[in-house]
Amino acid sequence: MTKAVITVVGKDTVGIIAKVCTYLAGNSINILDISQTIIQGYFNMMMIVDVTNAEKDFGATVMELEELGDEIGVRIRCQKEEIFTKMHRI
Amino acid sequence: MLNIFEVSETNNMIEQEKLDVRTITMGISLLDCCDSDLNVVNQKIYEKITRLAKDLVATGNDIEREYGVPVVNKRISVTPIALVGGAACKTPEDFVTIAETLDEAAKTVGVNFIGGYSALVNKGMTKADELLIRSIPKALAKTERVCSSINVASTKTGMNMDAIRLMGEIILQTAEETKEQDSLGCAKLVVFCNAPDDNPFMAGAFHGVTEADAVINVGVSGPGVVKCALEQVRGKNFEELCETIKKTAFKITRVGQLVAQEASRRLGVPFGIIDLSLAPTPAVGDSVGEILQEIGLERAGAPGTTAALALLNDQVKKGGIMASSYVGGLSGAFIPVSEDQAMIDAVAEGALTLEKLEAMTCVCSVGLDMIAIPGDTPATTISGIIADEAAIGMINQKTTAVRVIPVIGKGIGETVEFGGLLGYAPVMPVNTKSCEAFVTRGGRIPAPVHSFKN
Questions:
Q1: Does residue A18 sit within a domain?
Q2: Do B10 and A87 touch (CB under 8 A)?
């Protein structure tokens, strides 16, 4: 299983999760875990997703999610999981 | 499972604190390009570099996109050219053609620097070594991306004072040849003692003769991350200070290790080493000088600076070594002047002098780096500076280096602008007493005793 971490940071507004989830469903990316908090009015969300069966190349997914973020007015990053596990797990 | 705090800590390091992978450097052996016909040598060099490194830049960019961590530079280091061109080059001009080939190859594959226009002359110079050294001023003036380094001393063999004397003249000639660009050529020329074979950082990178045919070395960075971590332990004792640096260095290096393994796998080239260096850039918040301030100095150069730097360097190594399977290169804190805003400020305020920088090089990872000096500094004085620095490295069994830029037409207090990662620097005063009778004696300084350490 190839996992990736999607983070969304920005001003809270209606439908952020819906739009991101719709995109993921449309591209056969399965969500494994979601957590979110609101810190000082700012929306912080992290999703762990399975991109094994993703229809598009990973680089393209990264760019499309970034563009989706621009449309909604939030910052969306999609990164392979290893950068976090390497840094925080021995 | 990862939690949101860990993920945002990593992303903060990247977005706010300027964590990046400074360079993926592919080391390429050119020993199989040797030939007695210069045209054949040039052809083989161009063919081999462009074949092995054709996907280097694209791979670096892919890794950057997929992991969300900037991979700032993609570079190449090659076998010291004095060895590769020795059989074919009969004049310095012949060597210049190889420099031009390297430059062409670098442009074709899209890397921003190629290192290895080098000679290893720590004990003696062959005819080819001397021809290469004499070709450096023209080679660096005629090319854009080629970097040159000369190893003039080592702990095992002592100091080659003939080479050190010659390098003083060569540095001045290089400054003269590139005076239209504030003597920029000298920023691409390093004189080493105990040069490492696997250093990924420019301008001193070359691919040592004991290395494999091709190898991937990665240089990590992250002074901003260390500085921000230290903000959390203001006023705390040395134990907490050191633990914080160590843990931060571990995290930074893990990113380098990941990138190195990925690059190695994707390019089908073995992983060599991670160089755990804190490499500053002129950007605010990406500075080793700021770390020294955070440790408790008003400015870099204040009393206590050498101790603070020694502590920093050692903790970076302690944290980084566990994070990577292979560590090499220079590994430590770099203290270039022009590439570090807090160091530039310290010099401009008169807090930091050449002599203090020399003391700092006893405990940092490299040496006198990116220091602008007056253009009318005599060649013998530059040789004297190199000799002092090489002596520190020789006796202390560490790498030391000199990258000074005598800026033609400029004097003390004036500013030179190199641009980009090389930054800008105020011209620093140099002790004006002569050392000519010392450096012109000729011959070698013998290797030091390896016992009776006091």
A1: yes
A2: yes
pLDDT band at B251 (very low <50, low <70, confident <90, very high): very high
B7 chain-A contacts, CB cut-off 8 A: 5, 7, 46, 84
Domain that holds residue A51: 3-76
What DSSP line would sit under B163-227, residue for residue?
Answer: HHHHHHHHHHHHHHHTGGGTTGGGGGEEEEES--TT--SSSS----TTS-SEEEEEEE--HHHHH
Q: Which of B6, B11, B62 lies nearest to residue A77, judging by beta carbons?
A: B11
Closest-CA residue in chain A for B259?
A: A83
CATH number for the domain whose boundaries are B19-193: 3.20.70.20
Please give the tally of structural domains in chain A: 1
Q: Which residue of B has its CA nearest to A6?
A: B7
Please determine, for residue B4, whether its predicted confidence score (pLDDT) is greater than 70.
yes
H-helix or E-strand containing B85?
none
Residue A9 is assigned to a structural domain of this protein? yes
Query: What average pLDDT does range B336-350 have in this prediction?
Result: 94
User: What's the pTM?
Assistant: 0.94
Give the H/E segment covering residue A49.
strand A42-50
Q: With 90 as the cut, is the pLDDT of residue B420 above it? A: no
Residue A79: list chain B partners with CB under 8 A.
Answer: 66-68
Q: In the prediction, which pLDDT does B432 show?
A: 96
Residue ranges per structural domain of chain B: 19-193, 219-440
Identify all chain B residues contacting A31, using CB atoms and an 8 Å cutoff: none
Find, in chain B, the residue whose alpha carbon is nearest to that of A35: B4
A86 inside domain: no
Q: Judge whether residue B211 has pLDDT over 80.
A: yes
Domain B219-440 has CATH 3.30.710.10: no
ipTM of predicted complex: 0.91
Residues ≥6 apart with Cβ < 8 Å to A21: A31
Instruction: Identify the CATH number of the domain in which residue A45 sits.
Output: 3.30.70.260
CA atoms of B426 and B410, how far apart (whole Å)? 10
Contacts of B10 in chain A (CB under 8 A): 83-84, 87-88
Percent of chain B at pLDDT above 70? 100
The reply to whether A52 falls in a domain is: yes
Quickly state the pLDDT bin for B454 (edges 50, 70, 90): low
Q: Are B320 and B313 in contact (CB under 8 A)?
A: no
Give the total residue count for chain B. 454
Please state the rounded mean pLDDT for residues B122-129. Answer: 97
Residue A16 Cα distances to A19, A45, A69, B39, B277, angstroms: 5, 10, 9, 62, 40
Chain A residues close to B9, C-beta within 8 Å: 88
Structure tokens at A86: 């390497």
Give which of A38, A86, A89 to mutate to test B binding, by max B Cβ within 10 Å: A86
- If pLDDT is split at 50, 70 and 90, which confidence band does B284 have? confident
Inter-chain CB proximity A80 and B67 less than 8 Å: yes
Q: How far is B6 from chain A (nearest CA, A)?
A: 7
Partner-chain contact A87 B2, CB within 8 Å:
no
